[in-house]
Write a structure and sequence with these properties.
Layout (H helix, E strand, L loop, with lengths): L3 E8 L3 H18 L5 E5 L4 H7 L7 H5 L4 E6 L7 H15 L4 E7 L17 E7 L3 E10 L7 E7 L2 H18 L3 E5 L7 H13 L7 E5 H10 L6 E4 L1 H14 L7 E5 L7 E5 L16 H13 L3 H17 L13 H22 L1
Parallel strand pairs: 1-2, 1-3, 3-12, 5-10, 8-9, 8-10
Antiparallel strand pairs: 4-5, 4-11, 6-7, 11-12
Helix pairs in contact: 1-9, 1-11, 5-6, 7-8, 9-10, 10-11
């Protein structure tokens, strides 16, 4: 088969370290099944590139990326480059240019992962957040008037279009229907009397087409409390760009920490490449020390396998991560261990080969 062409943007800080381990896992999948091959093309874009060239990526960067089957991103951000530059001039421009309007972030407490909640069973933390990823609060619309003067005014506008709102909600309904799970919408209609009232209205309208899907709707502040007090009530969750960004970090804390938090930016119509990334930051304070946890990056690689239609291999990667956590002997410092980034990656690959061999024997 023709190899999948993957654009790799390792980025800044720990990005190159963790993304390398994810690439190794994908290459291991290729050894398990030679029909699944990947070609990786690396791009040096990020904050270091910005410091040399005054821009986060090449002028024709989007055109270059459009030729790929998917994008694998490490992390962006580094001291000296303002966060709004590193975010808007690379990550968000890719999401918007390629209409990656579905952001998928699993919040699943797998075996061996630590949950800070003492009275919660592992099976009770199993959520799939579907976040609107192209507009909403991160639309970039607004203005800065009378800058530096005493009558300075800043406008930050949220944009909720009928198309954008309906398509993400419909995607969430379809996902909940396919998985046989409940669907929860999270908004803030009591305070945001235009955008979130509209969101709730569209959620109800689309829901009439899916009578088999059991639904709930919460205000974002109540949802944050309930995620801690009663996480089992959340299965598939759909929410806006900002709320999804915040709540999935809370979810990461419930499901083993930010080192296990994976993310996918999907263009469901496959007209453009989708992008896969861990949701943690670039952590420049530990860059180059071998302390970075690569598991979120590896989990993101499993999401890429799912997207390409190789769900069985995506599940095997997650099983390898789970076995590594259960063993508890090869873990990075953030998870209470002393292993290096590469040692964790190596052990995941060993477990992956073992799992593949076992499944082949069983079949």
């Amino acid at each position: 088969m023709k190899p999948y062409n993957i654009a790799v943007i390792a980025g800044d800080g720990i990005g190159p370290e963790v993304i390398n381990e994810g690439i190794n896992v994908l290459n291991t999948i290729s050894t398990i099944n030679p029909d699944v091959q990947f070609d990786f093309t690396h791009f040096p874009w990020g904050c270091e590139f910005y410091s040399r060239h005054g821009k986060m990526m090449d002028e024709d960067g989007i055109e270059q990326l459009s030729a790929f089957d998917s994008i694998y991103l490490g992390a962006v951000g580094f001291p000296g480059v303002p966060d709004h530059i590193s975010l808007w001039d690379l990550l968000l421009i890719i999401r918007k240019s390629f209409d990656q309007y579905v952001n998928i972030r699993p919040v699943t407490l797998i075996k061996g992962a630590h949950c800070p909640l003492s009275d919660v069973q592992r099976e009770e933390v199993d959520m799939l957040f579907i976040r609107e990823n192209s507009e909403g609060e991160y639309s970039g619309a607004g203005d800065w008037l009378f800058k530096g003067k005493e009558n300075e005014v800043v406008l930050q506008n949220s944009v909720f279009s009928r198309k954008g709102t309906e398509r993400i909600i419909r995607y969430a309904y379809e996902t909940a229907k396919k998985q046989g799970k409940t669907l929860t919408s999270i908004s803030k209609a009591n305070a945001l009397n235009y955008s979130m009232v509209f969101w709730d209205q569209v959620f109800e309208e689309v829901g009439k087409e899916y009578p088999e899907v059991q639904t709930a709707s919460y205000l974002v502040d109540a949802a944050a409390m309930l995620m801690i007090k009663d996480p089992k009530r959340f299965e598939v969750v759909v929410t806006s760009n900002l709320f999804g960004d915040i709540l999935t970090d809370l979810g990461a804390a419930l499901a083993g920490g930010i080192g296990l938090a994976a993310g996918a930016n999907i263009n469901p119509e496959r007209e453009y490449p989708s992008m896969f990334e861990p949701i943690h930051g670039s952590a420049p304070d530990i860059a180059g020390q071998g302390k970075a946890n690569p598991l979120a990056s590896i989990w993101s690689a499993s999401q890429m396998l799912d997207f390409f239609g190789y769900e069985q291999y995506g599940k095997m990667v997650l099983e390898a991560i789970e076995q590594l956590l259960v063993e508890g002997t090869v873990l990075t410092p953030d998870m209470g261990g002393t292993a290096t980034t590469s040692e964790v990656g190596k052990r995941v690959n060993e477990l992956l080969v073992s799992i593949a061999t076992s499944k082949s024997v069983n079949n």
